[in-house]
Design a protein that fits this description.
Elements (H helix, E strand, L loop, with lengths): L1 E8 L4 H12 L4 E7 L4 E6 L6 H10 L3 E3 L1
Antiparallel strand pairs: 1-3, 1-4, 2-3
Length: 69
């Protein structure tokens, strides 16, 4: 498993947390997702053979948030 820490702008409430955690967590190969509103960060543990960082970023952006790479 690999870990990636993404800076995500636009998250402001528990609905935001749930939207990101459920969408990213639903990707095949994602082991865990931890959203920190206070830090504007999303930490993802994933299998790089099954899912890429770009796919994770695209999934977060599809929820309406801006990912700073």
């Amino acid at each position: 498993m690999e870990q990636v820490k993404l800076n995500v702008q636009g998250m402001s409430c528990n609905h935001c947390v749930n939207a990101v955690e459920s969408s990213v967590g639903g990707l095949g190969g994602v082991d865990s997702v931890n959203v920190s509103l206070a830090d504007n960060q999303v930490n993802v543990s994933f299998d790089p053979a099954a899912v890429s960082v770009d796919q994770i970023v695209d999934t977060i952006e599809d929820q309406g948030y801006d990912v700073q790479k």
